[in-house]
Amino acid sequence: MIIRTINCQGADRRVCPVRPLRTSVVSVSTHRTADSLHVRSVNTIRQHPNRSSWHIAALVLLACIFSACGGVTYTMDAPKQFKRFDDADTYKYITANGVMLKAREVDNYPKAALSFWKDATQKHLEKVGYIHSDTVCFKTKHGLDGCTLTFALPHGAEDWIFQETIFVVSDTLVLVEAAGEFNKFKAIEPDLAAALKTFSPNI
Q: N or C: which end of the chain has fewer CB within 10 A?
């Protein structure tokens, strides 16, 4: 995922509750069009011809989305376009054209509210080169507060969207992560946003 959050250079790594390069999920607000995000992404890439660090980040991100992180404890009405990996012991899905979806959890340490982790995630990802598009906070049908952050990033010759949705459940952060090629992601984004409102961590 991608968040190492705040002050992660020191010896005390306990202040870095989220493992490096694994982030989370869903929703570009309606006032931002797909074209405007695409143009912004392309312009940023042109302004930064040395994209090696971005390429590495994208590759690590994709690898981390598919890494094992413990047994499944989550429920969500996954969009019909997504199919679950039959042999997965984690909450891990993919569409036929390669949009990926996963949920995992990390310690809420240092213990903080949703607003703290939302801001920390955005600041860190922007610092490493991700283009922040929007943040949408909402309440699930189970009454759980969540926030979705949306970013653009280059992946090879393509522009991709990466979304991270954060839920705080007492001492645990539940992260729902999705990533895919720009146009393919935009096609399923409304269904994914609706599905997130059915999410329950069951922990």
A: C
